[in-house]
């Protein structure tokens, strides 16, 4: 099968749009429509149907997507391994998986470093789905990831930093003593960040200790926490460095947790597909240069 047909399939699947695919592939929309028609004929399936303002994949398309994505990634990696890579002139796009906390804490340094040495290179941030991360790295869906959850497979990971979790409170939240008690912790309303973000260590510890909290809200982004904690007088368990950064802009304070949580290791994980290609070696090295002292 024509490799360009596979690339068209992947783009339509990911964007849900023939127009966006044509723009990304620098072809006309009729060319994309013709490619989809050829795919439908070769695979004997509709593949995409219009619904909700976008092209929705059929069950057959859903089953084919991960296989096509992996195959194209491996072909690209094989080709890359034979080429030299010049960051000064390359317009390649790299895919980096981050939680929103990672975007806040790491993305500015990464972009500054990349723009200094590779002004045409693009970085696409892929939102964190911790349950899928190992598969994404193994198949080359993402080129690298920054996460605090350990992964079973070896992805050539590097420790970026170690820190602890603290409790984020409104500035006028009244404690009976100098330190928060477990009773005060459980009695307050909590803003809890969903486990899909990858910050599992504190949540797993709370569960193992049998601590029951009063959940006021469950959110999927750390960035909303300073607003709702300060406005609604809630508690949130967050990494210390991010919490202290928020103190400069919001009427908040931090308190030590009334129970022990193991240190949080933040790791850079490298994608397995094409790990030895010059382009990916440069990308991984540049990430480390941007984030390590």
Question: Can you walk me through this structure?
Answer:
The chain is of the alpha/beta class. It has 3 domains: 3-80, Arc Repressor Mutant, subunit A, CATH 1.10.10; 93-160 and 265-291, Periplasmic binding protein-like II (D-Maltodextrin-Binding Protein, domain 2, 3-Layer(aba) Sandwich); 165-262, Periplasmic binding protein-like II (D-Maltodextrin-Binding Protein, domain 2). The chain contains 11 helices and 12 strands. The strands form 4 sheets. It has a 5-stranded mixed β-sheet, covered by helices on one side. Strand 8 (189-193), helix 8 and strand 9 (214-219) form a beta-alpha-beta unit. Helix 1 (3-15) packs across helix 2. The mean pLDDT is 89.
Sequence-ordered SSE layout with sheet pairings:
Elements: H1 3-15, H2 18-25, H3 29-43, E1 48-51, E2 54-57, H4 59-80, E3 93-98, H5 100-117, E4 122-127, H6 133-139, E5 144-147, E6 158-163, E7 165-170, H7 182-187, E8 189-193, H8 201-208, E9 214-219, H9 225-232, E10 236-239, H10 240-246, E11 252-255, E12 264-270, H11 278-291
Parallel strand pairs: 3-4, 3-5, 8-9
Antiparallel strand pairs: 1-2, 5-12, 6-12, 7-10, 7-11
Helix pairs in contact: 1-2, 1-3, 1-4, 2-3, 5-11
Task: Name a few traits of the molecule.
293 residues; alpha/beta; Arc Repressor Mutant, subunit A; D-Maltodextrin-Binding Protein, domain 2; 5-stranded mixed β-sheet; 43% helix
């Amino acid at each position: 099968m024509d490799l360009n047909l596979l690339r068209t399939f992947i783009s339509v699947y990911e964007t849900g749009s023939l127009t966006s695919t044509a723009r990304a592939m620098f072809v006309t929309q009729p060319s994309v429509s013709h490619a989809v028609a050829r795919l439908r004929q070769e695979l004997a399936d509709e593949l995409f149907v219009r619904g909700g303002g976008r092209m929705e994949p059929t069950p057959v398309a859903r089953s084919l997507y991960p296989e096509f994505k992996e195959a194209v990634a491996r072909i690209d990696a094989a080709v890359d391994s034979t080429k030299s890579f010049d960051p000064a002139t390359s317009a390649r796009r790299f895919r980096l998986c981050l939680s929103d906390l990672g975007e806040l804490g790491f993305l500015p340094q990464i972009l500054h470093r990349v723009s200094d040495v590779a002004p045409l290179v693009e970085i696409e941030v892929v939102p964190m789905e911790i349950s899928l991360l190992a598969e994404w790295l193994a198949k080359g869906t993402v080129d690298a990831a920054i996460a605090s959850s350990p992964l079973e497979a070896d992805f050539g990971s590097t420790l970026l930093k170690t820190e602890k979790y603290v409790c984020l409170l409104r500035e006028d939240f009244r404690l009976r003593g100098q330190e928060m008690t477990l009773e005060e912790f459980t009695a307050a309303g909590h803003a809890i960040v969903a486990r899909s973000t990858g910050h599992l260590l504190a949540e797993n510890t709370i569960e193992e200790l049998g601590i029951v909290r009063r959940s006021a809200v469950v959110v999927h982004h750390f960035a909303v926490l300073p607003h709702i904690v300060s406005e609604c007088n809630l508690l949130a368990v967050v990494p210390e460095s991010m919490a202290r950064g928020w103190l400069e802009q919001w009427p908040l304070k931090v308190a030590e947790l009334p129970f022990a949580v193991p240190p949080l290791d933040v790791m850079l994980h490298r994608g397995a597909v094409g790990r030895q290609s010059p382009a990916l070696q440069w990308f991984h090295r540049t990430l480390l240069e941007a984030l390590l002292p």
